[in-house]
Design brief:
- The protein is an alpha/beta fold and about 230 residues long.
- The protein is built from eight helices and six strands.
- Helix 1 runs parallel beside helix 7.
- About 45% of the residues are buried.
- The N terminus and C terminus are likely disordered.
Amino acid sequence: MKDKRSLRPVSSDQEIDAFLQQAKQLSVSSQSSGRLIFALDATASRERTWDHACHLQSEMFLETRELGQLSVQLCHYGGINNFSASTWLQNTDSLLQQMNQVHCQGGHTQIARLLQHTLKQTRQQTVQAVIFIGDCVEEPVDFLCQLAGQLGIHSTPLFIFQEGRDITAQRAFKQMAKLSGGAYCRFDDASAATLKALLGAVAVYATGGRQALLEYARKGNPDILQLSHQIKS
């Protein structure tokens, strides 16, 4: 069971730069549609941030309307062995309805179960990206890294956003993101705008590939413009 703890500002410009630089270098080709898994730790320690997650998810869809169709599957775990995955959704309202039915419950993490589910999904039809928001790891890290590496083989990168400063989780999340070919970034409840920008960037990547991500960065978003000097045409 995870202990509740106050979150402190932890994101830095360097971490955000590194996250988006990793995303920029991914090699998915341009496309008119994409599939993205949006996964959330819904255990008790994240209860006070759940409303933020619902709002940010809605904003993420807005970034992709001009690029093509984005299908999102909402996954979450909480309670005792409770893991849920929605159908593939292409409508913001439908997805928010699903999220509004979720209630945080005390329990241990089920990240391995999430990764195994993702592997099954991407073997059936390619999943371009996975977003995971969590604050803790309570499972064998070696096994999680093995699963993350398998996702990397299938070109399904993990974009992991960590709440808080749990060192064990930080080390595990960084390894998992790297092995999958994805990226890692920390955030807290004072950096909602930053998280929204980063979520939007991943959604754009899933929908339009690397080129769409570069074009998104050029639009003038303050959290992404700081990377403009790194973007190569």
